[in-house]
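Try this one yourself first.
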């Protein structure tokens, strides 16, 4: 959660809202402050109250940009409804307002049109007040970086004339990290930390960079600095959980994943819940694992993807027949952009002796994710064989493997 929502200033705003008659709040709070309250409730997992505050802001301040932009982003990111987000955004009267421009660009990015988003922001760049141009550049670069559209983030950052600012350096370091240039990225993050050692976000970026290099102990240490600054820093807690998991410290990792869930109520936490189930499987607590998987399915906004993630987890824990059934039932219905689990399905076919299914499963996996094929199927082929050579070298299946796999002691979950 942003530090603003933990500040004395916001606490006073929240207190005013919660202690007053709601429709008299207009005499105390403006539309931006009411929208801040709505955003806070959303971050706390109280979406019903969140919508109520935003609608109240519009009742008191009709046409106000802040609550309309908030409701548009809720439609976009929570409801996964791009059309509704566009409709709400269209009701904003002042289409020259910078917040409206950012909102329109964000909608385009989520709609997988980052080039159009960049062109849209560029179109209005000349209309921005000269004093605001640098902020516009940095905000635009940040927007693309937040959605991992680093080519466009770099394009916007290159427009900046203030390369010595922390805001510039932060985006620059994130771009370098995305390119795999970890050494230069970490150098910049450390410089930022030296300039402001109490900025938890810098420690979190450093922890993530260290994690990507498999420096798990260092990543955990950086996360602990961020947690010391803010014990409720969700990102730091997740970073530490991931580090602990990667070191095999599963019991401790479980505590931090559970803590992360407590702090992030209202978000789609299905991936985290699957990870918790995965840890329970590793620890041989099968009832708890199954309960976590059931919870992940019930709360997921992308149920099919969650089923596939569960299949990958149970596969990794040796429940091949169960994984096979889940993948067979769910992969055919995956979004066309989905690329995970196909090599797992091919491996299930191999392990279960279903070699008549293996060639088609391998072909589908190669078409979706060659890297996953290499990771999951590579040991079935001679060293040095590239994934695209696998079809000409279909491995022999050891007959004594068929039927020897452990089975998960529950009925397969259905899509």
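Now uncover the answer:
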């Amino acid at each position: 959660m942003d530090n603003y929502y933990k500040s004395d200033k916001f606490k006073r705003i929240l207190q005013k809202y919660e202690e007053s008659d709601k429709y008299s709040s207009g005499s105390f709070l403006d539309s931006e402050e009411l929208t801040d309250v709505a955003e806070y409730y959303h971050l706390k997992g109280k979406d019903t109250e969140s919508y109520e505050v935003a609608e109240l802001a519009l009742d008191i301040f009709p046409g106000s940009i802040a609550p309309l932009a908030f409701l548009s982003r809720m439609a976009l990111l929570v409801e996964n409804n791009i059309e509704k987000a566009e409709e709400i955004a269209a009701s904003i009267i002042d289409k020259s307002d910078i917040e409206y421009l950012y909102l329109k660009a964000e909608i385009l990015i989520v709609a997988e049109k980052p080039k159009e988003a960049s062109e849209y922001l560029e179109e209005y760049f000349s209309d921005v007040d000269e004093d605001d141009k640098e902020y516009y550049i940095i905000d635009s670069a940040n927007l693309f970086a937040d959605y991992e559209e680093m080519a466009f983030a770099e394009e916007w950052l290159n427009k900046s004339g203030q390369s010595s600012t922390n805001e510039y350096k932060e985006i620059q370091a994130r771009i370098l990290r995305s390119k795999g240039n970890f050494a230069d990225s970490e150098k910049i993050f450390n410089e930022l930390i030296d300039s402001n050692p109490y900025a938890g976000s810098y420690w979190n970026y450093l922890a993530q960079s260290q994690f990507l290099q498999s420096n798990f102990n260092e990543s955990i240490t950086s996360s602990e600095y961020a947690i010391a600054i803010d014990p409720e820093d969700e990102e730091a807690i997740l970073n530490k959980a991931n580090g602990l998991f990667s070191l095999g410290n599963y019991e401790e990792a479980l505590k931090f994943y559970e803590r992360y869930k407590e702090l992030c109520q209202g978000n789609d936490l299905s991936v985290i819940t699957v990870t918790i189930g995965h840890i329970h499987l590793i620890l041989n607590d099968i009832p708890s694992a199954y309960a976590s998987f059931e919870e992940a399915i019930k709360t997921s906004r992308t149920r099919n993807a969650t089923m596939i993630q569960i299949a990958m987890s149970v596969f990794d824990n040796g429940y091949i027949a169960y994984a096979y059934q889940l993948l067979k039932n769910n992969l055919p219905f995956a979004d066309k952009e989905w690329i995970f689990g196909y090599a797992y399905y091919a491996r299930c076919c191999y392990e279960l002796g279903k070699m008549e299914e293996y060639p088609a499963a391998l072909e589908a996996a190669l078409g979706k994710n060659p890297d996953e094929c290499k990771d999951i199927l590579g040991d079935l082929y001679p060293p040095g064989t590239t994934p695209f050579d696998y079809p000409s070298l279909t491995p022999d299946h050891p007959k004594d493997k068929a039927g020897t796999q452990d089975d998960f002691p529950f009925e397969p979950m259905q899509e």
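Discussion: The radius of gyration is 24 Å. The chain has a mean pLDDT of 91.
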